[in-house]
Specification:
Chain lengths: ~500, ~140, ~100, ~80
């Protein structure tokens, strides 16, 4: 029983699902839940590195040779079952996802850990890695719905009335956006009879030579709206940032990573299906610009620290959308690289806020202050996080934002590079405002009543923040061990 | 345009009708439960679209040489021996998809109702204007 | 322009980041118009249009507060934007 | 002559549409629960006429029995009259 038959890409999705189901059943018994949670977190962390890059056909039958060497390439190769592609970039995405999932689970390990909470995080890992790897649009739709449910459940875990209101809004929008994606898939299925993305890609290229059919445009519009919801773009950035700010900060770090990776994965699918439509890239660009600008604008005006970070996360997702919208190969590589970097950098800030929330129990920035000397290394790490998010040189986001800006100007949109630069400056202003209100302002009431020796908060947060800063620095100083994989991935797309 | 050939377009129309009614309910109805019913109607309508797509032979995978001589819809080679069954068979793929899609929409529906009960207990009113009033408590 | 911000401050609005946000909004509108016209019409027209846009925006300077009012969390505003998004996407992709 | 089951199909189409519209107009939520169950059943029969019996059975169980059940519990726990 050699290893590569066990550690197959499908296991990356199957194992977290099994872990989620077991944890759900063990809800009552705390000790067992903690043990199973630790085991599942460790395995999820290790799995991406063990499974080697491969294309995995469910049910084992590879592409069916419709006709040998037929001149007309229409559907000469046909993927009958669901196909999972697991290459270097998917490994990168899922490895980062696993790190943040373990952060979300292990940070609150000191208090009572509820089985369902860890189960929902495992469900999130399973569905996001499935969306990243899957090559079959219906499989992606199913796991997007599971993703919506798990994120809503993680928001409900807080238990406050605000959380319930946000969860119901999120579920209603998730239901509608999911149905619109399914309607798009239904139209594609009725016209082409296929579900596999690469087959559809070939079938559509043949179909487009004779002019773009209206059905294709409506299907693209519907799936595009679904993509807007999943990635928190313009009309849905309010509900998305609401979800981030209502969930626990360590969970919000995990969720914003999910959203950015789903954004990139879904965009790749939509591009391969609908690149024929002329205004497609312009639409992605417009949506990216709007969500970037509105995200930062709202971040500047917020009074709650978690809402501020949520809007900054949405703005960075908008920046990735802009990069994808520009459409040249350099821009797309840079924006995928930026999605990876920004997921890491934002996580640092969310973790630092989780410590602050742990102490002050309030989100409102007006009631915070004076925590600089009370929380050990966290303020210093938070400062590094702020530099990381706004793209200061030693960090990784500098590498990617710099590449996006150059790609934007070389692609003939100098105005875009000006806008992107101003957005990163405005992000720095917003985050500095947050940093000042938390740490530098003079002490507040909660400080005086109990004399705060170095406050007891879970040391896990500091460990994870140091780890994330180290990764950010590592990628920032040596981008060449991450960037070429992304370039190969973009070349294999073959569509840009 | 006998009633028989009209059956499939009519099914598409009912599905479209269901989706429109569902969307109307979600957007314009003030009661939270009515909005949740709207979401169910939309997902029912979309499932109906999926199934009616596979009703008769509109959907068929055309092998390359058939595409050359302009074949648009084809009976599967394997079904050559049963011509009357092949003539009426529906395309099996959508019905497999709709099975999962129905189950998913039921699970989302159940969670939404649970939250609706929780919100009712707090606000003891089901109308969205009361629950989602812009209040900074 | 300053007194507009000042009377906003009197209303107890938190305007710490409002200046940068406003500057960003001005830049978005003027550059957006510039980019849009440059791509679809002659460059000269683009420059003229962007100046006009700049003047209009400067007159209604405290844009941020209007924008943030639009961003309220209520359900109906979100649904309205959702319906707007679907319509816009279908039209822009050339469906009609 | 049109085969019998297709004729029935047309009837189910109308019941589904009118059932959903009536369910939403109702002020008494319990009535709308029953109408939603009826609409689910009509869609289930419609699936059957569209030659997808397995989906028809699932839709009948879920759409006509389970959903109205859960919905009735919710209406029972909250208020019947929609204000």
């Amino acid at each position: 029983m050699n290893l590569d038959t066990i550690f197959v890409p499908a296991l990356l999705v199957a194992f977290p699902l099994i872990a989620a189901i077991c944890l759900n059943f063990l809800h009552g018994k705390d000790r067992v839940v903690k043990a199973v949670a630790i085991i599942s977190v460790v395995v999820v962390l290790v799995l991406p590195w063990i499974t080697d890059a491969a294309v995995y056909w469910f049910g084992g039958h590879p592409q069916v040779e419709n006709v040998t060497g037929g001149t007309n390439i229409v559907l000469s190769k046909l993927n009958l079952a669901i196909v999972y592609k697991y290459a270097a970039i998917q490994k990168l995405f899922i490895a980062i996802l696993a790190i943040l999932a373990s952060a979300a689970v292990l940070i609150h390990f000191t208090e009572r850990v509820s089985g369902v909470y860890v189960a929902m995080i495992m469900l999130g890992v399973a569905s996001t890695s499935a969306v990243i790897m899957a090559d079959d649009i219906f499989n992606i739709f199913v796991f997007l719905e599971i993703l919506t449910i798990s994120q809503a459940a993680l928001v409900i875990a807080i238990g406050s009335i605000q959380a319930y209101k946000t969860a119901i809004k999120y579920l209603i929008f998730g239901g509608i956006a999911g149905s619109s994606i399914l309607l798009g898939i239904a139209i594609l299925l009725n016209n082409y009879g296929l579900l596999n993305v690469s087959d559809l890609n070939r079938a559509i290229t043949l179909d487009i030579e004779a002019g773009i059919p209206h059905a294709l445009i409506v299907a693209c519009a519907l799936i595009f709206v679904g993509w807007l919801f999943e990635s928190g773009m313009v009309p849905f950035h309010i509900i998305k940032s609401d979800v981030y700010s209502k969930a626990r900060p360590s969970v919000a770090a995990f969720m914003q990573t999910q959203t950015k990776f789903v954004l990139v994965a879904l965009w790749v699918v939509i591009l391969r299906l609908f690149y024929g439509i002329s205004t497609f890239n312009a639409l992605v660009l417009g949506v990216g610009i709007l969500s970037m600008v509105f995200g930062v604008m709202m971040a500047l005006k917020q009074t709650e620290i978690t809402r501020l970070l949520a809007y900054v996360a949405v703005a960075q997702a908008g920046l990735v959308g802009v990069g994808l919208g520009i459409g040249t190969r350099a821009a797309v590589t840079a924006s995928i690289f930026h999605a990876v970097n920004d997921a890491l950098a934002m996580a640092i800030l969310f973790l630092s806020v989780s410590v602050v929330l742990h102490i002050t129990h309030t989100v409102d920035m007006r009631k915070m202050g004076g925590l600089l000397w009370k929380t050990g290394y966290v303020p210093f790490l938070c400062l590094l996080g702020i530099f990381a998010v706004s793209g200061m040189p030693p960090f990784n986001t500098y590498q990617s934002e710099f590449r996006i800006i150059t790609a934007a100007s070389t692609a003939g949109y100098p105005e875009l590079s000006v806008l992107i630069i101003l957005t990163s400056i405005a992000t720095l202003v917003a985050l500095m405002k947050g940093f000042y209100t938390i740490y530098l302002k003079e002490g507040q009431d909660y400080l005086t009543d109990k004399e705060l020796t170095p406050v007891s908060y879970s040391w896990g947060t500091e460990v994870f923040m140091v780890l994330l800063v180290a990764i950010c620095l590592a990628i920032g100083l040596t981008p060449q061990n991450v960037f070429p994989y992304i370039e190969q991935f973009v070349q294999t797309l073959g569509v840009i | 345009m006998s009633l028989e050939t009209l059956f499939q377009p009519m099914c598409f129309l009912t599905a479209a009708g269901l989706v429109v009614v569902g969307l109307y309910a979600v957007i314009f109805m003030d009661n939270l439960l009515k909005k949740i019913i709207g979401v169910t109607l939309i997902s029912d309508g979309v499932n109906l679209v999926l199934i009616t797509g596979g009703f008769n032979k509109i959907v068929a995978i055309i092998s390359p040489e058939q595409a050359e001589n302009g074949v648009t819809s084809v009976i599967y080679e394997g079904l050559k021996e049963y011509p009357e069954f092949a003539a009426q068979a529906a395309y099996p793929l959508p019905s497999a998809l709709v099975l999962t899609s129905i189950v998913i929409s039921v699970s989302i529906f159940a969670i939404m109702l649970a939250i609706a009960i929780k919100l009712y207990n707090h606000y003891n009113s089901m109308s969205c204007s009361v629950i989602f009033k812009e209040v900074d408590e | 322009m300053y007194e507009k911000f000042f009377e906003k401050l009197k209303q107890g609005e938190d305007i710490a980041g409002a200046f940068t946000a406003d500057f960003q909004m001005v830049l978005l509108i003027s550059l957006g118009v510039l980019l849009f016209f440059r791509l679809f019409t002659t460059v000269r027209l683009a420059i003229v249009a962007s100046f006009i846009a700049l003047l209009l925006v400067i007159r209604a300077i405290p844009l941020v507060f209007r924008v943030s009012k639009e961003h309220s969390d209520t359900f109906d505003s979100m649904l309205f934007y959702f319906a707007l998004a679907i319509g816009l996407v279908i039209v822009l992709l050339g469906g009609i | 002559m049109i085969p019998g089951y297709m004729l029935m199909g047309y009837i189910f189409m109308f019941t589904a549409l009118f059932g959903s519209v009536l369910a939403l107009i109702q002020r008494d939520l319990m009535k709308s629960v029953i109408l939603i169950g009826l609409e689910g059943l009509a869609v289930a029969f419609l699936f059957q006429t569209l030659r997808a019996p397995d989906v028809g059975i699932t839709q009948a169980i879920l759409g006509a029995a389970l959903l109205p059940g859960i919905f009735a519990i919710t209406v029972y726990k909250t208020r019947r009259e929609e204000e």
